[in-house]
Amino acid sequence: MVLLPIAALATLPWLAALPGALQRAARASPAESGFRSSGFLLVYCGVVLGFFSLSQSKLAPYILPMMPPLAALAGIHIGASGRPLRRAGWIAAALVTLSAAGLVVYCAAPVRCRSSVAAPVDIACADRRHDALH
Fold it and tell me: Is-above-0.70 flag for pTM?
């Protein structure tokens, strides 16, 4: 299945909660109306993944219709248990801090070299100097 690594990469923000979410969806009991919404989302994801895995052209955008139901399943799971939410908060705080530190280092670094791409003004000045010499 070539599309599984692509699906894992596409679900990277909620990948840690996905196994528990899929397990919860498979074990969910039907509501009073007899409809299992999480089971429906799980079957929908399976049909999309299976159908496009069997096709001859396995393009990555074909699995995009599977992402909103997976995100909904992950959201249901995260909402039911607060532990992944706290962990995600700490990870987000660490990434924001790391990004801010990188931005400070980048802005504080002195500019040592000029761009190697010539600006139109530089080209025009060089042409005038060349004409003046000849």
Answer: no
